[in-house]
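Table S2 (text version). Query chain:
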Amino acid sequence: MRVRPKKESIDELFLAILSLESLEECRAFFEDLCTRNELMAMHQRIIVARMLKKGRIYSHIVEATGASTATISRVNRALMDGRGGYAAVLERMGQ
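Corresponding structure-token output:
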């Protein structure tokens, strides 16, 4: 049986991320924490979110990123009905 972390323990991860002070620290932490494939998948989702926000259609996004339509759909749902995380990050990145 798989044990799900409690909300408080997940907050510990978020607090760790918030403690990072530079791009170099962030890169080092995430390279220690995640596999290369996990990092690439997260990066791909940000690119997909940016493209969706710009009004790109799924077929163009698939061709440009290699993302599956399931991934694009999941990101689109998060943009439309999520907690606003993608929108906040994209706005702060000037996108």
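Notes on Table S2: The mean pLDDT is 93. The two ends are 42 Å apart (CA to CA).
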